[in-house]
Amino acid sequence: MKILKIILLVVVCTTLGYLSGMVTRDSITTWYPTLVKPVFNPPNWIFAPVWTLLYIMMGIAAGLVWTSDSDEKTVKKALGFFAIQFALNVIWSYLFFGLHNPLLALIEIVLLLLMIFETYNQFKRIDKLAGFLLIPYLAWVSFATILNASIWWLNR
């Protein structure tokens, strides 16, 4: 049963990630190339495999927390933070690529980063591996925050 719950959360995370990425498709070929970007901007092809791996790791982490032996209140709190940060993750794509608004996306990604950090803190108290699995996500969104800020600054 534990593995099925973990698989379910991996499928949910990757599916929602894929659907939120659909917002970016048109803008990646039309709007995004028109922006001035910093020298450290990664090539576009890197984003899909990185995000896929991160969504898989997020799903595994959430599944480990969901199936842990911790008390129900602690698990619900941790998964509540996970749900909030995931919603913010999805919203960021819409703000940046859908609305073409790097400033609003920057404000939102800072909130996302804080929520990921709190989710990490909640998860590591319940399951150390679950917390560890969120570290690459935290690092990537930290980088994305700097990238978002740079793009906003260069295009204001």
In short:
The chain has 156 residues and is an all-alpha fold. The chain is built from six helices and no strands.
Please tag this protein with its features.
single chain; 156 residues; mainly alpha; Ferritin; 6 helices
Structural topology:
Layout lengths: L1 H20 L2 H6 L17 H20 L5 H27 L3 H25 L1 H28 L1
Helix pairs in contact: 1-3, 1-4, 3-6, 4-5, 5-6
Explained architecture:
The protein has one domain (2-155): Up-down Bundle (Ferritin), CATH 1.20.1260.100. It starts with a helix and ends with a helix. By secondary structure, the protein is an all-alpha fold. It is built from six helices and no strands. The longest helix is centred in the C-terminal third of the chain and has 28 residues, at 128-155. The mean pLDDT is 95. Helices cover 81% and strands 0% of the residues.
